[in-house]
Amino acid sequence: MSALLANLGLHLVGPRVMLGVLVAAAIALAVALWDLDRVRNKAHDAQNALDDAASTIADQQAEIKQINDLLDVKRAQVRQSHARLDAAAERLKALEESDADAKTWADRPVPDGIRHWLHNPDGRQ
C-alpha cells in the first residue's frame, strides 16, 4: 500500500518534492524524538528531586519524633520534680504546724527538724 502511494506521489508531485517531504518528515521526527528525550530527562530529574525531598522529609519526621520523645521524658521529669517539691512543701508545713521551734525558725538558728529536712527533702532516713 505504501509503495502504491509512493509511486502515485512520485507521478503527481515529482521525486524532488517527495524527497523534500520525506526529509522534512525525518527532521520533524528527529526534533520530536529530541524533545521527547529532553522531556524524559526532565521527568527523571524531577523524580530524583522528589525522591530526595521525600527522604529528607522522612528524616525530619524521625528527628521530630525523637525530639518529642525526649520532650515527653523531660515533661515527666518536670512533673516528678513538681510533685517532690509539693510533697516537700507539705512536709515543711506539717513540721511548722507540729513543732513550736519550727514555727519561729526564721528569727533564730535553724531547728534540727528543718536542718534534717533541708539535707533530706524526700523524708528518707
Question: What does this protein look like?
Answer:
- The protein has four helices and no strands.
- The radius of gyration is 44 Å and the shape is rod-shaped.
- Helix 1 packs across helix 2.
- It is mainly α and about 120 residues long.
- It has two domains: about 40 residues; about 70 residues.
- The termini are far apart.
For this entry, give a set of tags:
125 residues, mainly alpha, rod-shaped
Short description:
Helices cover 86% and strands 0% of the residues. The protein has 125 residues and is mainly alpha-helical. It folds into 2 domains: 1-38; 59-125.
Q: Report the biggest beta sheet as strand number plus sense, adding barrel if it closes.
A: none
Mass-distribution shape? rod-shaped
Radius of gyration: 44 Å
Task: Give the overall average pLDDT.
Answer: 83
- Percent helix: over 70%
Low-confidence stretches: none
SSE layout and pairing:
Blueprint: H1 2-13, H2 15-98, H3 100-103, H4 112-119
